[in-house]
Amino acid sequence: MKKLSIYTFLVAAVLFTGCSQKEVEVSGADNSESALNNIDNSNIQNEVVNDSLVESSDNGYYYMINGKKELIQNIYFGFDKYSLTTEMKNVAKENASKLSGVQAGTTIKVEGNCDEWGTDEYNYALGLKRAKIVKDTLVMDGVDENAIKVVSFGESNPVCTEKNSTCWQKNRRSEHKLVK
């Protein structure tokens, strides 16, 4: 009878004790109020894409900037990475030189995206790190920090849904959108 009581107590303890809440941490991210104001996942779908959007391509978006059709290229990342390779730093520099000419009042939305590997929470945090590193690079290369918002879509915005490494690589990206 004593063993039954102990087992009953242990089962009840396991059932009524919840798992600890794990908080997603973005290491190296500035958690100040001003940085958090630039991170906005609300009403993402309700934003109006700027009239300067001409067309999309497999590698980015064409916008009319200062009367010229300019390709703003996507930035791609390695598996489980949010640092920029030398090649992607050069792409970010090119994007910055083009984006520094956007009209006042235009917001540059940097969208961080991930492949399907990892938990939702992990991928949202990773997407945010990717968007933030791209924002920091744009700012270092002359784009106004106040004109840039970062958002993470995690794995919820794939451009490719096939189950292979080429497709997953396409989803590990950061995109630039000009919005009103």
Describe the structure in your own words.
This protein is an alpha+beta fold and 180 residues long. It is built from five helices and seven strands. The strands form two sheets. It has a four-stranded mixed sheet with strand order 4-7-5-6. It has a three-stranded antiparallel sheet with strand order 1-2-3. A hairpin with a 2-residue loop joins strand 2 (60-65) and strand 3. Residues 18-46 have low confidence and may be disordered.
Outline the fold blueprint.
Layout: H1 2-16, H2 33-37, E1 53-57, E2 60-65, E3 68-73, E4 75-76, H3 86-99, E5 107-113, H4 120-140, E6 148-154, H5 165-171, E7 173-179
Parallel strand pairs: 5-6
Antiparallel strand pairs: 1-2, 2-3, 4-7, 5-7
Helix pairs in contact: 3-4
